[in-house]
Amino acid sequence: MAYRPVHKIPSSEITPKSVYLNRRSLMAGAGAAFAAGMLPGHAWAKLETKPSKYGADLKPTAEEYITSYNNFYEFGTGKADPSENAGSLTTSPWSVKVDGLVAKPGTLALEDIVPKVQEDRTYRHRCVEAWSMVIPWVGFQLSDLLTKVEPLGSAKYVAFETLVRPDEMPGQKGFFQPLDWPYVEGLRLDEAMHPLTILATGLYGEELPNQNGAPLRLVVPWKYGFKSIKSIVRITLTEKEPPTTWNKAASNEYGFYSNVNPNVDHPRWSQATERPIGGGLLSQRQPTLMFNGYEDEVASLYTGMDLKKYF
Ligand code: MTE
Questions:
Q1: Using a 6 Å CB cutoff, which residues line ligand 1?
Q2: What residues does each domain of the chain span?
Q3: pLDDT digits (tens, 9 = 90+) for 139-182
Q4: 68 C-alpha to ligand 1 centroid (Å)
């Protein structure tokens, strides 16, 4: 199965404010006993962060859209499914297995991966379906983790894997499965080491809601959103280009690189423009930027490559 093109305004575009208010009033009204233990996922705890130079000029999309209009097929294929179903996911304790071509493989507890003080980084987020948001992430550079485990000279790629847990992920249950599980993604090692590439644990200064990929998800802002794999449990350094979920599902539509590129259309729709989410019903489409606006920082990674061939 492949992405469904967005032709009409989904209901989640019209209602998210009420969803948002609901969540807030639940928290405010229900009292402390309820708030700590019984709310789905994390209790939206504040994170310790420091400002960064990234995205100070961008205006973030309202939080209610970021947390209610999602793609996370493990919880269903509809945009509202993740926010409705992801509360059931247990995200603590959490560990990540780091293996493959590294000098220091091992299974690391989340607490040992995430720095005590993380960075605020506001990035553009461009889905291959031609919608976009601006998201104020909290996270740290993937390069920090990779450096710690010491990649061997033979390592050329980094592979990522999401959790498989059908009893908590309704999208993984049942006869009809839209994708192969686990969801897998990959980057070239130099892309993974790039300072823009982060592991995010939060947004808007608080812990990630489960629907956004708690407790740890990748963010690669110059690539289409599907590269930014959620709820990561394994990171493997490899010599060969690893398989990636959407490429396995439709290799003519989704390449390994998947750099945002307004000049290379999807076979079924144009990538020249995008629809900002949360701009209201009459909001204009806007031009899509080369490498999603990060051309100055990342173009040199692809010098000499034909980006139509390596899409
Ligand atoms: N990661 C997993 N494990 N499963 C998914 O279905 N969807 C991807 C990506 N990461 C997905 C995933 C897609 S298509 C997009 S656009 C982004 O997550 C959406 O991130 P957001 O919901 O935080 O905006």
A1: 70-74, 125, 127, 162, 183, 212-213, 225-226, 228-231
A2: 11-302
A3: 999 999 999 999 999 999 999 999 999 999 999 998 889 999 99
A4: 12
